[in-house]
Amino acid sequence: MTTTTAPAAGAVAPRHHSPVRRPSLPRLTVVELRKLVDTRAGRWLLITIGLIAAVVVTLQLIYAEDADQTFANFFVPSLLPVGVLLPVLGILSITSEWSQRTALTTYALVPRRERVVTAKLAAVMVAALASVLASLALAAVGTLVASAIGGAGSWQLDGSLIVNALILQVTNVLIGAAFGLLLLNPPLAIVGYFLLPTVWGVLGEMVRPLRGPSEWLDTSKTMEPLFSSDALTGEQWGRIAVSLLVWLVLPLAAGLFRTLRREVS
């Protein structure tokens, strides 16, 4: 005979919890974007980037010839100082987890570290795209002011310059992020980012056998055609690809390998 036992009085039936969904990549990217402005260093760096771009446009309004006060001439010069500081933003985005000792919390909430790294890379890329939009907006303001005070005020701008600017700023910030992944220390990564390419550039100028390779490996030379509205040749694109392989792809791959294997404490 089969008998069943009635549940005891007052017993609580077990609850079935729905599985916890992992956060999506867009959500993680939004979180990483917030982190860029949550820290004092990141917030002031973003403010500094905007101020420098505004100063460049203002100086052109004051000192440039009237004929040179055009939309293109306001836009292109603002890219260079912004491009210098964007890699620092990429470095801080990656290394802040370790310098501020939040990596344990971050990787406990999102155990798959490659998803966190991907979100960080996406966040700094969004910041780079936003910097190009900011440069365009400041160039537009400069052109309006130039038109009002008697400057040329020409709005002509080759669309390829905008595409090149996006490529330039995105690759700049990703190179910084790659150095951050590789070294995982803010001061060391910042010094390494600025020192190593500079030393290579100096050696390429001073040592004759290195002059040929320098034309393919010195990013200050390979990326320079991006500032021009002329169509890039196949060789110029090849030089850009080779230099990015050395300064972006290899450090990024090695840094990702190190980040995924490093013990969090």
Question: What is this structure, in a nutshell?
Answer:
By secondary structure, the chain is an all-alpha fold. The protein has helices at residues 25-38, 40-63, 71-99, 103-109, 113-148, 159-183, 186-206, 211-217, 219-222, 234-261.
Q: What is the alpha-carbon Rg in Å?
A: 25 Å
Shape: globular
- Number of distinct beta strands: 0
H and E order: HHHHHHHHHH
For the residues shown, what is the average pLDDT? 87
Q: How many strands, what sense, and barrel or not for the largest sheet? A: none
Uncertain runs are none
Q: Indicate the percent of residues in helices.
A: over 70%
The secondary structure category is mainly alpha
Share of residues in strands? under 5%
Descriptive overview:
- The protein has 265 residues and is an all-alpha fold.
- It contains 10 helices and no strands.
- Helix 3 packs across helix 7 and helix 6 packs across helix 7.
- It starts with 24 loop residues before the first helix and ends with a helix.
- The model has no long low-confidence stretch (mean pLDDT 87).
Task: Outline the secondary-structure elements.
Blueprint: H1 25-38, H2 40-63, H3 71-99, H4 103-109, H5 113-148, H6 159-183, H7 186-206, H8 211-217, H9 219-222, H10 234-261
Helix pairs in contact: 1-2, 1-5, 2-3, 2-5, 3-5, 3-6, 3-7, 5-6, 6-7, 6-10, 7-8
